[in-house]
Amino acid sequence: MLVNTIFVVLLAMSHGVFAEKMLRPKFKDIKIWSEEKLVSHKVVYDHSDPHLNFSMEVHQELHDVDIHLEVRITNKLDPMYTTTLNTTLNICRILGFANKSPVGRFVHGFIREFGNIVESCPIAKGSYFINKFWWPEDPTTAILPELEFDIIWEAYHIDASKKRTLIMNDHFTGDFTVQDVNNLKPGIFAMLPKSV
Ligand SMILES: *[C@@H]1O[C@H](CO)[C@@H](O)[C@H](O)[C@H]1NC(C)=O
Ligand SMILES: *[C@@H]1O[C@H](CO)[C@@H](O)[C@H](O)[C@H]1NC(C)=O
């Protein structure tokens, strides 16, 4: 009995020692659509050991690709506090940048560790994936608001005659909530090369 009690207390203490406060997303709804003739893709998320897996099958060579991204983040207690992002990015130009600049190479290298990613344009037929992707986290000490997010991600293929075709259309909704976690992913500084 006493041993049991001590064990429970130790467990509670160790939980207190290792748990850290993190602002983490909790997805409510993930809607994924692919055009299927040029591209098929899938996105899955595991909340308990947070990571995303993204996989994409390119069925025909892609000449050029634009990504349209709309993000809305709203404070649940104060809807006036809303941040939005509405932007279109050209993947081929980003890859050009990633291959030329040191920051681009760092980010690209970081993502590359998670799988087989697109390296250059045109994008060759084949399988691409990112497995167990998660961004670096740092513990939160400030009091943070509970946030709601709404993300729309669309990809367009642009062929040689500039014709645009929607090839991916995903919609993610959920909340960012502060959680006690004991599986913190290392912060951005932990990722930098150790022996410079
Ligand atoms: C993501 O991929 C990894 C490696 O293949 C696998 O172990 C993991 O279970 C996958 N996660 C989900 C949510 O399917
Ligand atoms: C984002 O921008 C596009 C084009 O500028 C516009 O059609 C669309 O309505 C905008 N979306 C939001 C949520 O404001």
TrEMBL record:
This is Uncharacterized protein. The keyword Transmembrane helix does not apply. The keyword Signal applies. Keywords: Signal. The gene is Dwil\GK16768. InterPro entries: DUF1091. GO terms for biological process: imaginal disc fusion, thorax closure. It comes from Drosophila willistoni (Fruit fly). It comes from the Eukaryota. Residues 1-19 form the signal peptide.
